[in-house]
Amino acid sequence: MKIKSAKFIRSYATAESMPDSKEPEFAFIGRSNVGKSSLINYLADRKNLALTSSKPGKTQLINTFMINGDWKLVDLPGYGFAKVSQKRRDKFSDLILSYLKDRKQLYCAFILIDSRLEPQAIDVEFVEWCGVNEVPFSIVFTKSDKLKKNELMHNTELFKAALHKSGWEELPEMFVTSATKNTGGKEVLGYIGKLV
Ligand code: GTP
Ligand code: MG
What would the mean pLDDT of 20-25 be, rounded to a whole number? Predict the structure, then answer.
């Protein structure tokens, strides 16, 4: 799969306001600051297609991009960002959940996991929610440039174990990426290419 063209379409504040279009959609979701927008830019080979930031909570809307004129990349807002107060974390916003649950055009949600961390309860919970709601998804470990090979192995194995523990018998497709070192993108695009 080669990306020949990538164009921002528009942003939406609700899933319901998105048009009933025909193109398959591939969404990127994960904790705030996990690297969703950076991964999209790397995959599309465009520096500033999706806006990135070192501060969490940059992406607040559903941003859509047309790729090669025939499928769409969807940048979703992150979850788990304590914006209002430390107590009231807006865990998974309605915006994210209604898009994932109701969007017929969604072929795959890539759930991004920060490879530097041991399994986080909120991520495991989010994967569980996707399973219960029959959302098609894959896992993408991000920021793999930040750690040594054995540390990376350790964290990805722990994550798999956490999924097994929460009841997954068959594990989903998994990818390891670095948007800084440009690695793992070919595999993600290859996977998308098989589905479109
Ligand atoms: P929100 O939109 O706020 O939810 O964040 P996001 O998930 O879109 O993250 P974003 O792509 O904006 O990246 C957050 C920070 O992580 C930025 O400072 C990026 O430069 C950094 N980052 C993203 N991907 C990588 C990576 O693969 N390696 C390293 N080292 N840093 C990365
Ligand atoms: Mg973002």
Answer: 96
